[in-house]
Amino acid sequence: MKDRADIGVVGLAVMGENLILNMESHGFTVACFNRTTAKVDAFLTGRGKGKNLIGCHRLPELVAALARPRKVMMMVRAGRPVDDLIGELTPLLEPGDLLIDGGNSHYPDTIRRCQTAAAGNLLYVGAGVSGGEEGALKGPSIMPGGHPEAWPHIQPIFQAIAAKVDDGTPCCEWLGPDGAGHFVKMVHNGIEYGDMQLTAEAYHLMAQGWGMTPAEMAEVFRRWNGGELDSYLIEITADILAKTDDETGRPMVDVILDAAGQKGTGKWTSQAGLDLGVGIPQIAEAVFARCLSAIKEERVAAAGKLPGPKGGHSGDRSAFLADLERAVYAAKICSYAQGYQLLRAASTEHGWNLNFGDIALLWRGGCIIRARFLGDIKRAFDAEPTLANLLLAPFFRDKVAAAQEAWRRTVVAAVEGGIPIPAISTALNYYDAYRCERLPANLLQAQRDYFGAHTYERIDKPRGEFFHTNWTGQGGATASTTYVV
Q1: Are 203 and 220 spatial neighbours (Cβ–Cβ below 8 Å)?
Q2: What is d(CA 196, CA 233) in angstroms, rounded to the nearest whole number?
Q3: Burial (0-12, 13-18, 19+ Cβ within 10 Å), 279
Q4: How far is CA 429 from CA 226, 330, 407, 434, 439, in A?
Q5: Are the C-beta atoms of 329 and 401 separated by less than 8 Å?
Q6: Which range among 129-138, 203-212, 305-314, 452-461 shows the weakest confidence by mean pLDDT?
Q7: What angle do CA 87, 91, 96 make, to 5 degrees?
Q8: Considering 17, 24, 173, 192, which one is annotated as catalytic?
Q9: d(CA 480, CA 485)
């Protein structure tokens, strides 16, 4: 074992433990610390036994065990716990040492922490890590950003432990300054919310609409995973639906309460869309769907009082499933299109100069949203780096066009059956709105000007010139200041 560790990790929960074992398996010596020190001992006598790990019971001990420049990776809960830990570590570190936040921190916090660290001559990195327990152990997608001078020090470790695509390229690359890494990870999670909701809606349509058993649905998802929908989430959905509960003998999915949890990244993504003025309704609907699921007792009470269709369908089930597959695929494209529009807006707002093709490459392996068509996304941005929307790329434009009729039939079937599919239907609304040359916002502007003198632009005048009409003859010529939040 080396006299000094290559990196220190604080936090021995699921992700921390598995990242440590991943690093050690690639030849790095890791110093480990957890606030509950019994976990350190349990780890070193359990999964970490006999490995090149240095267990520490105090933070000064951890820092002293590290080679210079010291690299400390924090794997603790986002929010105040990160700030508290930084406050404890900073006095122990020296100029040029690195603080790395590997949790799901909100990107404005990372921007602030970068500024604070720089004032103390420390290098700060916000590194999004995706892949869950298995990814952390066997190869995650890692999305680092922060002080660029930190990258050469962590690049050998991060790219060694990251997932690799078929040509050996690691799913880890430097993304940009301050909060760029955590913003990209946040958008990844927002797309993940959308993907999961799409999958759940497909399951709901099969179960409620056609009365299919979990075993039958598992076979459908396995078949889908062999085609264009090939992705991690489709793959694990097939496994989930095939699982039997040991206690009851029933399908596992049938004994799980239909109340979803969330830890904030989907909400943050939706808020970022509002802050940056980017329409990402599909991601927001996925968040709202979880909120609605959480009010289980209210829904049970409402189910007995509010009338509606019962959800049953008849006809050609094979034809319906073929339509549903195309609908999910088209909606999935829209989810990524919205995520990339948000990335573009943030890159412009913060001067990050994000490389959108490289981001697609990072997501091709290790992460939760890894999917076959991420390679097509990279090719689309390589061909046109300033592409305004993925839907405009020839590959995706043609795919959505081919799926469009099936997509619309799927939405109609859900509406007629009274089965909620907010993500699939919102994706279609997004597509239709984006391709609509003239939306009804002209009437909205007239209403705003009528009651609040908020002004409007005219189709026969240059953009940027604003006008006001005295609609009632009593309002006068005074108009409100024109601005968009």
Answers
A1: no
A2: 7
A3: middle
A4: 28, 12, 11, 8, 12
A5: no
A6: 305-314
A7: 105
A8: 192
A9: 14
Q: Tokens 């090719």 belong to which residue?
A: 379
Question: CA-CA distance, 412 to 418, in Å (whole number)?
Answer: 10
Query: Rg of the chain's alpha carbons, rounded to an integer?
Result: 25
β-pair type (30-33, 53-56): parallel
User: What count of other Cβ atoms lies within 10 Å of the Cβ of residue 462?
Assistant: 7
Strands (E), 119-261: 123-130, 141-146
Is residue 310 annotated as part of the catalytic site, yes or no?
Answer: no
Burial 441-454 (b: 16+ CB within 10 A, else e): eeeeeeeebeeebb
Q: Is 374 helix (H, G, I), strand (E, B) or coil?
A: helix
Active site residue 192: yes
CB atoms within 10 A of CB 132: 17
Strand order in the sheet with 53-56: 53-56, 30-33, 7-10, 71-74, 98-101, 123-130, 141-146
Burial of 382 (0-12, 13-18, 19+ CB in 10 A): middle
Report yes or no: 1 and 63 within 8 Å, Cβ to Cβ: no
Taking CA atoms, 437 is separated from 263, 440, 441, 455, in Å, by: 38, 10, 11, 22
Band of residue 483 on the pLDDT scale cut at 50, 70, 90: low
**DSSP class of 50:** T
Sign of the C-alpha dihedral, residues 132, 133, 135, 140? Answer: positive
d(CA 338, CA 282): 8
From 17, 24, 71, 185, the catalytic residue: 185
Q: Cis omega before residue 91 (within 30°)?
A: no
- Contacting residues for 183 by C-beta, under 8 A, at least 6 apart: 107, 145, 272, 343, 346, 350, 352
Distances from the Cα of 291 to the Cα of 98, 286, 338, 466, 474, angstroms: 38, 9, 21, 40, 45
Whether pTM > 0.85 for this model: the answer is yes
Selection from 111, 122, 292 nearest residue 186 by Cα: 111
- Residue 86 identity: I
Q: Give tens-digit pLDDT for 15-70.
A: 999 999 999 999 999 999 999 999 999 999 999 999 999 999 999 999 999 999 99
